[in-house]
Amino acid sequence: MVLEIIKLVQKDKADDKANCEGKSDVCFENKSKTTVKVELGHRSEGSIACFLIIQPDKSECKLDIPAGVYGYKVSTISDEQLLNMGDLRLRSCKKEKMVIE
Protein backbone atom coordinates (compact mmCIF):
# COMPACT_ATOMS: atom_id res chain seq x y z
CA MET A 1 0.00 0.00 0.00
CA VAL A 2 2.77 2.50 0.82
CA LEU A 3 4.49 1.89 -2.52
CA GLU A 4 1.32 2.73 -4.42
CA ILE A 5 0.94 6.03 -2.58
CA ILE A 6 4.53 7.00 -3.37
CA LYS A 7 4.02 6.20 -7.04
CA LEU A 8 0.90 8.37 -7.12
CA VAL A 9 2.72 11.27 -5.50
CA GLN A 10 5.60 10.97 -7.97
CA LYS A 11 3.19 10.87 -10.89
CA ASP A 12 1.40 13.98 -9.62
CA LYS A 13 4.70 15.90 -9.43
CA ALA A 14 5.45 15.02 -13.05
CA ASP A 15 1.95 16.12 -14.07
CA ASP A 16 2.40 19.44 -12.21
CA LYS A 17 5.62 20.11 -14.13
CA ALA A 18 3.88 19.52 -17.46
CA ASN A 19 0.89 21.68 -16.47
CA CYS A 20 3.02 24.66 -15.42
CA GLU A 21 5.05 24.91 -18.64
CA GLY A 22 5.08 28.53 -19.80
CA LYS A 23 3.27 29.71 -16.67
CA SER A 24 4.40 31.31 -13.45
CA ASP A 25 3.05 32.41 -10.07
CA VAL A 26 3.82 35.70 -8.35
CA CYS A 27 3.01 36.71 -4.77
CA PHE A 28 3.25 40.08 -3.06
CA GLU A 29 3.51 40.30 0.74
CA ASN A 30 2.60 43.63 2.32
CA LYS A 31 4.60 44.20 5.52
CA SER A 32 3.82 47.92 5.59
CA LYS A 33 1.17 49.55 7.76
CA THR A 34 -0.97 50.75 4.86
CA THR A 35 -3.13 49.09 2.21
CA VAL A 36 -1.38 49.05 -1.17
CA LYS A 37 -2.34 48.49 -4.78
CA VAL A 38 -0.06 46.50 -7.08
CA GLU A 39 -0.41 46.84 -10.84
CA LEU A 40 1.31 44.16 -12.90
CA GLY A 41 1.60 44.60 -16.68
CA HIS A 42 3.25 42.53 -19.40
CA ARG A 43 6.13 44.52 -20.98
CA SER A 44 6.07 43.14 -24.53
CA GLU A 45 2.28 43.10 -24.90
CA GLY A 46 1.65 46.35 -23.05
CA SER A 47 -1.34 44.76 -21.36
CA ILE A 48 -2.29 44.83 -17.69
CA ALA A 49 -2.01 41.34 -16.19
CA CYS A 50 -3.67 42.21 -12.88
CA PHE A 51 -4.39 44.64 -10.08
CA LEU A 52 -4.00 43.40 -6.52
CA ILE A 53 -5.20 45.20 -3.39
CA ILE A 54 -3.17 44.02 -0.41
CA GLN A 55 -4.06 44.75 3.21
CA PRO A 56 -1.31 45.35 5.81
CA ASP A 57 0.41 42.14 6.97
CA LYS A 58 -1.31 40.10 4.24
CA SER A 59 -0.23 38.64 0.92
CA GLU A 60 -1.93 38.11 -2.42
CA CYS A 61 -0.93 35.94 -5.36
CA LYS A 62 -1.62 35.80 -9.06
CA LEU A 63 -1.36 32.24 -10.36
CA ASP A 64 -0.73 30.71 -13.77
CA ILE A 65 0.21 33.87 -15.63
CA PRO A 66 2.38 33.58 -18.75
CA ALA A 67 6.11 33.68 -18.07
CA GLY A 68 7.90 36.82 -19.27
CA VAL A 69 8.98 40.29 -18.21
CA TYR A 70 6.42 42.38 -16.34
CA GLY A 71 6.45 45.92 -15.08
CA TYR A 72 5.00 46.55 -11.65
CA LYS A 73 3.85 49.62 -9.73
CA VAL A 74 3.14 49.69 -6.01
CA SER A 75 1.08 52.61 -4.70
CA THR A 76 -0.96 53.48 -1.63
CA ILE A 77 -4.73 53.14 -1.86
CA SER A 78 -5.52 56.21 0.22
CA ASP A 79 -3.69 58.87 -1.83
CA GLU A 80 -2.31 56.96 -4.85
CA GLN A 81 1.27 57.77 -3.79
CA LEU A 82 3.75 55.76 -5.87
CA LEU A 83 5.91 53.67 -3.51
CA ASN A 84 7.91 51.59 -5.95
CA MET A 85 8.03 50.51 -9.58
CA GLY A 86 10.25 48.31 -11.67
CA ASP A 87 10.52 45.17 -13.75
CA LEU A 88 10.05 41.57 -12.72
CA ARG A 89 11.03 38.48 -14.71
CA LEU A 90 8.64 35.57 -14.21
CA ARG A 91 10.18 32.26 -15.19
CA SER A 92 8.29 29.20 -16.33
CA CYS A 93 7.25 26.83 -13.51
CA LYS A 94 8.62 29.16 -10.81
CA LYS A 95 6.98 31.10 -8.00
CA GLU A 96 8.24 34.61 -7.33
CA LYS A 97 7.62 36.47 -4.08
CA MET A 98 8.03 40.21 -3.52
CA VAL A 99 7.89 41.84 -0.10
CA ILE A 100 6.57 45.36 0.31
CA GLU A 101 7.88 47.09 3.42
Structure description:
This protein has 101 residues and is of the alpha+beta class. It has one domain (22-100): Immunoglobulins (Immunoglobulin-like, Sandwich). Helices cover 19% and strands 54% of the residues. The protein contains one helix and seven strands. It has one helix spanning 2-20, and strands spanning 23-30, 36-42, 48-54, 58-66, 68-76, 82-90, 95-100. The strands form two sheets. A four-stranded antiparallel β-sheet has the order 3-2-5-6, with no helix packed on it. The chain has a three-stranded mixed β-sheet with strand order 4-1-7, with no helix packed on it. The protein is globular, with a radius of gyration of 17 Å. 11% of the residues are buried.
- Class by SSE composition: alpha+beta
List the uncertain runs: 1-14
Largest sheet: 4 strands, antiparallel
CATH class: Mainly Beta
H/E order of the elements? HEEEEEEE
The strand order across the widest sheet is 3-2-5-6
Q: What percent of the residues sit in helical stretches (DSSP H or I)?
A: 10-25%
Supply the CATH architecture.
Sandwich
Q: What is the number of beta strands?
A: 7
Task: State the helix count.
Answer: 1
Span of the ends, CA to CA? 48 Å
CATH topology: Immunoglobulin-like
What would you give as the CATH superfamily?
Answer: Immunoglobulins
- Proportion of strand residues: over 45%
